[in-house]
Amino acid sequence: MKKISILVGSLRKGSFARKIANNIIPMFPKDYDVKIVEIRHLPLYNFDYDDPEVTDVALPPEYTEFRETIKASDGIFFVTPENNRSIPACLKNAVDIGSKPNSDVAWKNKPNGIVSHSVGKMGGYSSQKNLRLALSYFDMKTVGQPEIFLGNSPTYFDDEGNLNVEKTRQFLQDYVTRFVELVEKNA
């Protein structure tokens, strides 16, 4: 069974990013274990936690648990809004935490997919490009074209949070299928 970790770049329970993630989970094959990995509890990154010369600061157990979860994943799927034309702070914090220690980077060579959205028309373009830039440092394999930028995201859901636009659902399914192919090639 392949394990996929989904990171949602919004902490709000009712966020559109979380709704998108919840709609994506059933699009994976049945032999995939796909879960949202919560990042709301992660303390802000501080290199003192990982600096062997700093002995009076303990590594938060949340860091260790998060890093081990990412390392045990066969692929990482990001669903993120755009905040002020960039990556939401909570998601950047998670990226930074997974990037240390340098000798054991959790993200290294992990296949990844990214779906971005915004309530406006740009679909989270800037957040996705900034996230891709941050992840490129870790030699992560990424699903290519077409990229997914969902603009006007509130219009995609019914009252229960289900996708109500069939063309968008099919577009996301195609992207998930291509992500699964990338994960399989990386196995």
From TrEMBL:
<dbReference type="InterPro" id="IPR029039">
    <property type="entry name" value="Flavoprotein-like_sf"/>
</dbReference>
<feature type="domain" description="NADPH-dependent FMN reductase-like">
    <location>
        <begin position="3"/>
        <end position="153"/>
    </location>
</feature>
<dbReference type="GO" id="GO:0010181">
    <property type="term" value="F:FMN binding"/>
</dbReference>
<protein>
    <submittedName>
        <fullName>NAD(P)H-dependent oxidoreductase</fullName>
    </submittedName>
</protein>
<dbReference type="InterPro" id="IPR050712">
    <property type="entry name" value="NAD(P)H-dep_reductase"/>
</dbReference>
<dbReference type="GO" id="GO:0016491">
    <property type="term" value="F:oxidoreductase activity"/>
</dbReference>
<dbReference type="Pfam" id="PF03358">
    <property type="entry name" value="FMN_red"/>
</dbReference>
<dbReference type="GO" id="GO:0005829">
    <property type="term" value="C:cytosol"/>
</dbReference>
<dbReference type="InterPro" id="IPR005025">
    <property type="entry name" value="FMN_Rdtase-like_dom"/>
</dbReference>
